[in-house]
Amino acid sequence: xxxxxxxxxxxxxxxxxxxxxxLQPGSDPQKVIDALYAFTDCQISLAPNSCIIIDxxxxxxxxxxxxxxSTDHTxxxxxxxxxxxxxxxxxxxxxTSLEKIFIEKEVYEVIKKSKDRDEMVALIAEGxxxxxxxxxxxxxxxxEILKLAxxxxxxxxxxxxxxxxxxxxxxxxxxxxxxxxxxHLTDYAV
Length: 190
What we know:
mainly alpha
């Protein structure tokens, strides 16, 4: 309508939109493109008016704040996931190492000497005592001792030290990897 200097427009739209704009001789194509953006709907700016819940209250925020909130929440969830995974791996490492000590050092032999459950727990704890500080990373609980006492004889007789050492080494590398991810949480999140 006189705002853009063009010769004529051909609308060849069928399945896909195809509009041909024929320029007047001597027209600058870049100026016509800039004018199309300025005076038509080729480019439309939208100002979203978003309402989201922040700290249990509805708030109207822009896209930047929504992205920041979403990113912060994602990083928090990743940190929570990594801490849970680290706890699980450390517990598995502890139990595998504890089982290795229990079988290799033949601590299970004291079970035969015990008269009741309490005495058995005390004897196993006493048998593990020399190895706890130098071979484990945390103290042994009564529940863990009871799990050791429930190990079937078949599993004790088929114990494979090499396989257990490899499992412990693998758990150590996974623990280091998760700790590295926690230390470099932003890089991990990205």
